[in-house]
């Protein structure tokens, strides 16, 4: 397991400790949770932006979900 060091002033440290109490977890766990949630949100926004760009350009290719089910033996 890796350790990443983060420099905080006293006020920042206190704020993070208070926020971690709200989540009922330690500061490290909270920071990790929030970072990965933010990355996931950013990825989702990029997927949506790519979809909208393709749709606007008329290059979007879609197919019925039933085709995917057949391909993956789910349908």
For this entry, give a set of tags:
75 residues, mainly alpha, 0% strand
Descriptive account of the structure:
The chain is mainly alpha-helical and 75 residues long. The chain has one domain. It has 3 helices and no strands. Helix 1 packs across helix 2. The longest helix is centred in the middle third of the chain and has 31 residues. The two termini are 41 Å apart.
What is the tally of helical segments? 3
User: If you compute it from the alpha carbons, what radius of gyration comes out, rounded to the nearest whole angstrom?
Assistant: 21 Å
Q: What is the overall shape? A: elongated
Largest sheet: none
End-to-end separation in angstroms reads 41 Å
Structural class by sheet pairing and helices: mainly alpha
Q: How many beta-strand elements?
A: 0
On the 0-100 scale, what is the average pLDDT?
A: 95
- How much of the sequence lies in strands comes to under 5%
Number of separate structural domains: 1
Order of helices and strands: HHH
Unreliable segments (pLDDT under 50, ≥5 consecutive)? none
Helix content: 55-70%
Secondary-structure map with pairings?
Layout: H1 10-23, H2 27-57, H3 65-71
Helix pairs in contact: 1-2
Compact description:
The protein has 75 residues and is mostly helical. It is built from three helices and no strands.
């Amino acid at each position: 397991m890796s350790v990443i060091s983060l420099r905080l002033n006293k006020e920042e440290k206190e704020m993070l400790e208070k926020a971690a109490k709200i989540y009922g977890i330690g500061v490290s766990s909270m920071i990790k949770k929030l970072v990965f949630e933010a990355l996931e949100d950013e990825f989702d926004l990029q997927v949506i932006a790519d979809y909208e760009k393709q749709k606007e350009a008329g290059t979007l290719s879609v197919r019925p979900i039933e085709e995917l089910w057949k391909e993956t033996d789910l349908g």
